[in-house]
Amino acid sequence: MAKIKKRGATGAARNYITRTQAVKKLQISLPDFRKLCIWKGIYPREPRNKRKVTKSVTASTTFYYTKDIQYLLHEPLLQKFREQKVLEKKISKALGRGDNSDAARWERNAARPEATGKPRYTLNHVIRERYPTFIDAVRDLDDCLSMLFLFANLPSTSAVPARMIARCERLCLEFQHYLIVSNSLRKSFLSIKGIYYQANIQGEDVLWLVPYKFNQRIVGDVDFRIMGTFVEFYMTLLSFVNYRLFTSIGIKYPPKFDQLKDEQGAELGAFSLEGVNIATDGDEIKAITNGESQHGPDPKVQAAVDKIVEELKADSSVDKASTEVVAVADEEEGEQASDSLDKFEPAAPGGDVLPQPTQASGNVSQLFSKFTVYLSRETPRQPLEFLLRAFGCKRIGWDSVLGEGSFTTDESDPSITHQIVDRPVVQAVNGTEDNGEDNQTSQKITQNQRYPGRIYVQPQWVWDSVNDVELKSPELYAPGAGLPPHLSPFVKTANGQYDPTLPLDAQETEAEALDAEIESDAENANAEEQEQSDEDVENDMNVDSANGDESEVDAEEFAGVSDDDVEEDEEEAAILQRQREVEAELSGKSLKSKSVDAKSKSKLDQKKALEKKAREEAEDLERAKGMLSKKKRKLFEQMQFSNKKKSTEDTVLRAKRRKLEKEQRKARATLA
Amino acid sequence: MAPTLPERKRKTRELEPESDDEFANVVFDGVLSQSEDEFDDLSDEEDKDDDESGNEGSQSNDEEDDALLSDDIPSDVDGEEEIRKLLKNVEIEIDEPGVDPKREEEEDPDKNYTVETDANGNERYVYEEIDPIYDSDDSDAQGPVNTIGDIPLSFYDTYPHIGYDINGKKIMRPAAGDALQNLLDSIEIPKGWTGLTDINTGNPLNLTQEELELVRRVQMGLSTDDLHDPYPEMVEYFTSKEEKMPLSAAPEPKRRFLPSKHEAKQVMKLVRAIREGRILPYKPPRSARGRSRRRRRFTLTSGKTRRPKSPIRCTFLRPNSPPWLRHELQPACRIFAEEREAWEALDPEEREKDYMPQKYGALRKVPAWDTLVNERFERCMDLYLAPRVRKNRLNIDPNSLLPKLPSPSELKPFPTVAQTIFRGHDGRVRSVAIDPTGLTVASGGDDGTVRVWELLTGRQIWSVKLSSDEAVNAVRWRPSKDSFILAAATGEDIFLMVPTHASVTPTLDQASRDILSVGFGYATNGQKQAAPTGKEPPAKWARPGTKLEDDGVLIRITVRSTVKVISWHRRGDHFTTVSPSGQRSSVAIHTLSKHLTQIPFRKLSGLAQTAAFHPSRPLFFVATQQTIRCYDLQKLELIKAIQPGAKWISSFDIHPGGDNLIAGSYDKRLLWHDLDLSNRPYKTMRFHGEAIRTVRFHKGGLPLFADASDDGTLQIFHGKVPSDQLENPTIVPVKILKGHKVVSKLGVLDMDWHPKEPWCVSAGADGTIRLWM
Asked: ipTM of this model?
């Protein structure tokens, strides 16, 4: 006879362990357990059948893998936690005894762990364990960066010590420096939550969110101890990642940090990068010196700008200058394009499609490299500075209010080519006379003063240019202009999905287009009739009702109604048509809207044909579905469901846009 | 003894090329001069010699010789040397015939020389060579040595010898051997080979066994001789055993349990020193800068190492998954007010997106996002607490799941509309069949009549009432064009008839009647034979009576229970009937030519439902409620049992090709079996809402089959069986034919295909027959 199996000796009961059991097994407190779990990346598991694990299970019971907990048993951190516990006990006992000096000494010694020979814990080994390869760490950087950038922007409280915030800030700035030097920033997006950045680090896309520079409001119950645990881990992770990234591009880590500059708000400028190689150490300081070390701007660019400025003076027209600058930029882009990959179009159908990289990364480093940009007081300096630098801009100036480290604080600096402004245009009363004066010397400028020879753009210009890796036309982004839509660069529209960048005609389905046309025709007819007269009230009413019917059909179609209803509607429409004819005969008039009807009829016919085709297709599908096994059919239906959901979403979006466009057209017509 | 000596001679002869010419001559001479007798003498003498010299072995001469050759002398050359000595003795003895050696020896046994006369006639003492026997004192005596003294060996380079032995004889240079020999030597390295050459002899210097052993011991780290024992037995100074009578029984002293005062003094000394600052208890803390520099960093490994295989670890979900980052700041579409309201009305947890797109005119107007910290915290909590499940997302085109069906145009032709409706039956029409020529349709119904109709027009051309109280359950045409015979079953009777009809020529009619009547003579014979067995015959073949005979009904076969199914063999000589209620005699096979009825199954597990012959091979299929069995009629054995998995099979049909079979069941299933493939169905189709009554293949070469169901519909399928055995049949549903009305839960009761055209007829419970084309 086989051996009788004991209950709970194998299977799920063995593989899972509740949290209470786990804490007991590890002999640590719950907060310590939490810390350990967060750092070691151990998370609860959902057993397939909770009842099989334990009998006394409630909905809120958390389970862990027993193997995971066993793995925690060997953790060196566990010993540290225990030591800490022992120390706390010691101190409390000493205090209980009234042995204050002892307690004070233990506490003092605990506060300087390096000195006592008992170093505090580090998370280095955890990082090594969790990220066996560097690329693993990069993949997990999303959360890390979002968290650290958020903490870098938090106010310091008792829960969030200032040191932690300072360290977060420093790590983030170092990381930004890497992105700038290696030109690995790819995209950025201004969202309502903050600014999203996407970088490509060693082939891996990393996306993170940086909040806007506002005082973060903390509402609701946020446990900063948990956040702090995460931040502690992430700080270690990012320092490792930074170290490796810096050394991979031959820069010494940590970079030199100027405390004084930092206190003055230099941020990125407070760091100076040194090459790791001693031979090149002296001359190759890659610091973000903001062009100061070069004693002014690039001579070539300066010459070009000077030339343009001279021309401008002769011409005194801002517009032309801006277009020429753009032209120069365009020419240069053209030259670069010769290095880039050629696009392979299939000559004949039937071949396989090979994926091709879409853009050369060479563009990235030179997008803004020829410009000297000045940031106005009201613009957000940090993101702009970072973005401009990451895309090749070397000279960025800003108002001294915005902090230390600018290329120039002088707004009237002649080398400035672009100025980013974000203030409303105030209609200048006496602005025109100032233009004739010498710009170089005048410091006091009225509110709306423009320096000739430079391009004024709104900040969105930078983001849109960056996302498309081409300089956008600055006219669209001129101060006070209605901005073009800023679309998320992370959304990849699949085939058939609503794409806001394309015109409506390019993406709407045939049926939708037809519906829209029929509707517009009907409306036109309506309008005509209204124009004609309102003598024949009855007739008008009929037409109205017919139109009403049609629009109902439209509405139903969105909801996806079966064909029977449509047929009924068709019948109704036919009846109405007949009735209308009869009435016309009775009243002795020819049918007025005949011509319109003929046109719309053909469209209706088309629509009918489309519907018929759709019905046939549906029938075919039904037949084919009948041949599937039950399992496959369910799968298929599930997929169809989700696809349908998406497509209805898209239809709704398109309908919305159509409505909007129509309104705009109408508005334009009324204006005209 | 005698026969062994020549061996030795042969040996010497073999050694000849290596040895000195002179010497060789001598030896040969001697040997040649000897006779058989002398051999004996010689050996005797030698025996004595051996005894005298105290050689312990009183064994045979050969053995001693062997010993000489093998034991004492390590190398071949030495052996030769020894042999040479031995032979010399022999030579001497032989050369001296006058002297009686025995006597001499008796005189002075210790004398080890012989007296010879030299060339001048003087005496000459020739000493025997000293034999360094085992117990001799002369331990230095070795093999022959090169006695050239301290002279470089290179002096002899030009000579064939390399020196002289103790007797002044030349030591010849050992043969160097040719290149091939060297190669062979280098391949087969002898034991103890060093690769060196002995200077004195010019022979290769090899290590002896003892030397090798020594080397091995040194290598193993052992002592050089066996005498040393590395692990001597331990002598315990204090025994581990507790003695019964210890030397001292004193109890443990108290001081062993008290803290040491000396130690306390030492500690106090240190404490005092620390307090006074003379020594520092810890390392002095480093400066802040130094600390930061010392922060240990190591590179995370570059992508080379493989991540540890751990199935339990899933990767973390990535935050900020982009799909919801959709035109937020500057929505291309203005968000309508209703939409916003709808969004705000929802519970925050139910919202699909946690934000509403909003348009801000400029970047400076964009406010802070209130709940960013909360969201981040939520994310942290998720990372820490959310159980994770690996979800495999199927990233496939849903259309790829669909089977590739041929387009409907390819599937044509198939019946689509009801062309003709045959009315006339009173009550249900139970059975319908198209004749082999395809011109007429026969039907039988509840009214007990069999009617024959013209197919295209729907005109009734013949009719006969077989029974007044029982329904006609089955009508089937004899499947051959040379006759026009219809079989119909009503109650327990089966009637065979020849309908009269305008298109039936008299010859055809006569031929049919002949076929039916030919068995009568036979039947009488058969019955004569069957009668003596005393059993009731399974069936009675008889004429139905003049009234019916006038109508064309020629034979009546009466079996034991109600017949429900008739099925003809393809040649038309046999047909089978099935009467599900008849226990043992449920299946009967009738032979038309002999008017003979046989019951093939004495016992059948389950109730027989229907039976059929295989279209080409001598196989017979019987369907019981749940299985279809296939029997070989020649070997009379069961070939296979097919299990469609249906609860109650209503009917089945075999594909004209013979390898496929369809079965319909009362539990609404239509099952396609590939007979070669498996006993289980290849496809199960459940398209009917009610029981399936009949299934039938098109027999005229079109890939069609159909089933008739109680829900009043026929379903037409395209079922193509490829000629290639490896391909699976394609089954495509093509058409649902609706038209029959459902009367008291019965819809279509039977159907049949036209023999050539894609037409079919169906018999409905509503009393109509419909032709579909």
From this structure: 0.74
